[in-house]
Amino acid sequence: xxxSAFRPSVLHNYLHYPYSGFAKEVKNLxxxxxxxxxxxKLWRKGPLMVSSDxxxxxxxxxxxxxxxxxxxxxxxxxxVNGFSPDQYLRTKLVILYTKNRDLRTAHQLFxxxxxxxxxxWNSMISGYVQISRFEKALELFFNMQLSSLVPDxxxxxxxxxxxxxxxxxxxxxxIHAISIKRETKDNLVIATALIDMYCxxxxxxxxxLVFDRMHERNVITWTALIVGYGQHGRGGExxxxxxxxxxxxxxxxxxxxxxxxxxxxxxxxxxEGLEYFDLMVQHYKIRPRAEHCSAIVDLLGRAxxxxxxxxxAERLAFLDHSVIWGALLxxxxxxxxxxxxxxxxxxxxxxxSVAVIKSDKDNRYGLNSIVTHDGEKMSCWAxxxxxxxxxxxxxxxxxxxxxxxxxxxxxxxxxxxxxxMAADYDGKTLIVAGLDGDxxxxxxxxxxxxxxxxxxxTKLTASCELCGKKAFFTLRKTGDTQKELxxxxxxxxxxxxQHYVSGQxxxxxxxxxxxxxxxxxxxxxxxxxxxxxxxxx
Length: 537
Fold this sequence. Notes:
- By secondary structure, this protein is an alpha/beta fold.
- It has helices spanning 8-11, 20-31, 35-42, 52-65, 68-80, 87-99, 103-111, 118-130, 134-145, 153-166, 169-181, 188-200, 204-212, 219-231, 235-247, 254-267, 270-283, 290-302, 306-315, 322-332, 338-345, 389-393, 395-399, 415-424, 497-534; strands spanning 354-359, 369-371, 377-383, 403-407, 429-432, 462-463, 470-471, 473-476, 492-495.
- A five-stranded mixed beta sheet has the order 2-3-1-4-5, with helices on both faces. A two-stranded antiparallel ribbon has the order 6-7.
- Mean pLDDT is 76; it is low at 1-19, 363-375 and 523-537.
């Protein structure tokens, strides 16, 4: 028999029972909250001194405490000492890395597993959903369907979330049918995920049908339906559902009120929004969070009451939150920029926490700084793309940013991906400015793609240069047909609908005249040599 048969990695898994004393010691240290001490003791042990039970206790505690660096140390100890983990420990490691959003390592461990449990499949699916790899999560789900494993609530909940984020209604319905066959229709977790999915896919009838057929409801399911209607501006249903929820004896939570306040903001119901805010604080004793304050600031800002919005945020001591800063900036945009300057003056929000990005295609302005309407200079980055911004700025500097402004956004091809990651996962407030249409009134770049990501959308208008009415369109004065043509007032002019249509007619007629003149000139030039030959010398 070769020496390799007696390697520690082989014997270790079978001869761990004499060391149950150490396993018990590790377990007691983990229970008492002394995880670091337990890992220190682990590293003092030799290759054959640690059992599977010890590793399991340490990994589970690292997962519970989200101590992912310590969990990596436990895994490193296995590798250094040649320990070959069994399927149970491999599953623990997969859970550890997926919760740490290290899906690359988790995937390597997952594909090397000889037998994959339902827990490991669920962990991988959930992990990919957490990092917004929704297509990969669905791919894993359908691969799991080929095995003999039966999905449970922990499988369907993230899968429905993936369908919701991708707005894949038909795919979601198929998976819904699978969940019904698995007899999970009475599960609150799955029902809540279903309601969220159907609402985000704009299938409100299906969402309400799922809700109405539930034998048991709680505040979370009520709130999921209210939030779903509120996200699509269906304020009437939001208020009606809120009254039904209260009448049914359920106490709304802070998310419920956030949906109500956002609905009031989108419909411009200032008095109603302030009444609901008082109801939340006075009657239900819910302490307002920055998100609630941001909704009220946005509500007041949309109504042009910027000073009241600033005083409201200052009174609640929320001016140091990035969401409030973003809401106030949005309220001040094109209204009263002096409020922004006042915020900077009192150092509630420092200028260094704001960055402005613009396309490097537009070289009409300075590349190193941008001047705001009140003369305050702020740093500006001229970029060819957005996804490299974090690397070029530096991760430390990026982490200190609260607000990112993007100008000339129509020129960025990666606009959607950047906005989704920065807002959803980095917690940044984004203010995006750009053209939604080109001079032919066709969609320009990715501007229209990011509307589903936005908390609010404001379409700004200029004045028609010909009649003074609101100008919704841009008329190109030149005959250049290139889509991306950088220029100012010498090339473009804002016009109303009437003058846009008539202007297009005039431009087209002028173009035809110029083309006809060019044809005549070309004919003359071609004919000139021939005619010169006919003239006697």
